[in-house]
Structure formats: C-alpha cells, structure tokens
Amino acid sequence: MADRDRSGRKVLGRSSSEAVQGVAPPSGVPPRPVLGRSDGRPVRSNASPTGIGDSPERAGAPYLSGTRRRRRRPRARTIIVGLVVLLVLVPIGSFAFGWWQFSKIPTVNVSDALSARGSRSGTNYLIVGTDSRTGIDANDPNAGAFLSGEVSGARTDTIMVLHVEGSTTQLASIPRDLWVTDPATGQKGRINSTFASGPANLIRAVESIGIPIDDYLEINFVSFGRLVDAVGGITIDFPYPAVDDHSGLAIAKAGPNHLNGTQALAYVRSRYYTELVDGKWRVDGTADIGRTERQRAFLTALMHSVAGERNPFRLFGLPGSLGVGMKRGSTFSYFNAIDLAWTMKDASPEPVGLPVTPRRTSGGADVLELQPEASAVIKGLAE
C-alpha cells in the first residue's frame, strides 16, 4: 500500500522506510536509521551510516560542513602554536649557540692592567692583531698570506683603540714603531716589543701615553682571514691599482674591490705597498704610517660587515669561525660583545691618527715620536 505524505499525497515507489528524509515517524514508533541514500543508491561498505567523512556529493551537507569546521579549527591552532614556538625557540637557540661558541674563545687575565672607569663616559677597546703562527695549518686557504719565513712567538702587527661614546665611534691607530718606555723593563723601545711581556704589559704601555683601556681583544691574522670569509668578504676602496709581491697583494683596478680572506690579509699586512699612479709604479713612502691607515680601513670594513650581518645563525656562529686564533680580556663578556656589535651596526668609526715624527735613534733604529699636537687627540680618547 502506498504511503502518503503529510499533505495526504501518495508517495509512489517507496516503502515507509524509504520515505523522504526529514519526515517524522508516527507517534510512538522509534525512528529507523536511514541506510540508503536520497537517490536510492546503496551506501558503500566503507561509508559511515551518517555520511560523515564521505565526499560532499555522497554525504549530507549538515553533517559534512560541521565536520569540516571542526577539523579546520584544530589545524589552524596547530599552525599558530607552531609559529609561536618557532618565534620563541629559534632566537633562544641562536642565542644559546652563540653563547656556547663565545665561551670557547680563550681569555687572558688583564683585569689588573685595565683603567678605572671613574667619570669617563666613553669606552676604549684595545684591539691587537698578531702575526702568531699558533694553530695555523699549512692547508688553511689563508695561510699563504703570512706563513713565509721563520718567525717564532707572537708579535703585534696591528694596535688600535676603538673609542665608543654614545653613538660616536672613533678608531685610532697606534704605530707599532712608536717609541715608548717598556713598563716591564723601564727601557725605551718600540711599543710593539712590549707585547713580548704579555698583553697586560702592552695595555700599560698604551696607557702610559695617556689612553685609558677598558677591554682587550686579540686576534691573529689567520683568524682575521677566517672572519672575513665568514661574513662573505669585505670591500676596500683603492685610489689606484696596487701590488705587493711580498704579501701577495694584487689589485688590478682602482675603486671598490671586494676581497676574500686571503686578499684582505695581503692588503692589511702589506709592507711594500706599491701603487700605479699616472702610469708609473710608486712605492708608498709613508712606511708604518701608511700601513696603519690601511689597517684602519681594513678593520673598519670588517666591523661593518660583522655588525651588518642579519642572518642570526651566521652571526652567532662567527665566534666559532675564529678557531683558536682569538683571545679576549677576562672582563669582556658575551653581553659586552652583543652590545658592541649592536653599537657598531650602523656606525662609521671616525679615523683618528696620532701625530708622529719619524727619527733615527743613536742605535740606528727608525722609530716614531709623538708630536705635541698628539696631546689633543689623546685627550679626546680619554674622555
């Protein structure tokens, strides 16, 4: 017998169990589960009776849309939580990695030689570059810049003072041939020779000419080369083509030149710097003075590259690239290093040269003496 719908019309071709979905069963009769589809096709064996999890055309929209909404929300929350975890853990991990790398840099105890802060507003970092061969592998790509000849021990090849006062930075070069009194022996000699008695003795020699020192950093040249390579090289502006057969320097064109670690070392260590001026090769006649100016240009370019590094993994990994060739004063902490890097990020240190006069000693040594005008420069560095 044909069933009738609520309006009294007959529903042909269907049993009461196959009536249109949504029609309420007679009072007192429990509803039977609808196992078939609205179009009469059988339910597939792997489909649920309610259609949940089935495709849109095979399941009822009310069930599917609700299910989709319920599934999307946890997925969105998972993505958000993942992003938060990355934003928090990556910086922390990078910071911790940098700390670990920094902690491997050897320290030297120079605290007794450092100046008292007093009322000074500026901070002076003594930066020393040495020609120590310690830890240098002959296969190192930068070794060729300085492994020629037999040299024992370590000598200072670069002595600079980085003066930081607020947003003002100055980089002063101290000529290695400057004639001073050795604090350890009381004898007159070149300032670079005072390093033979240790870093603390060199600090005292620098302070003896009136420049207070607050922190100490030392690096040998192989580590300078590694650091240059670690930041992708440095750019030096050459006024003329230049060569030095002794250091390996070979600059074919004037203007900005991008140097790798080996090329940068050949530039900073050049003692026979020769330029092509007006078609003629001319040896730099300024000797140690010109060399300190090149070293200052090198160090300024290197600091800009290091401080301008934006990749946190590369930045925090820089201490590890130095190997055993770097040393720091016992008072120079990881936070000091971060603060210095932040200060130098957009800084352009003003070059400062000490006015000096060349002379020859009674023993025949060519040295440099401070001129009276040097007192004004030294006063500025002591503030």
TrEMBL record:
Residues 1-71 are annotated as: Disordered. The chain crosses the membrane at residues 78-100. Keywords: Membrane, Transmembrane, Transmembrane helix. Residues 155-306 form the Cell envelope-related transcriptional attenuator domain. The keyword Membrane applies. The keyword Protein biosynthesis does not apply. It holds the Pfam family LytR_cpsA_psr. PANTHER family: POLYISOPRENYL-TEICHOIC ACID--PEPTIDOGLYCAN TEICHOIC ACID TRANSFERASE TAGU. This is Unannotated protein. It comes from freshwater metagenome.
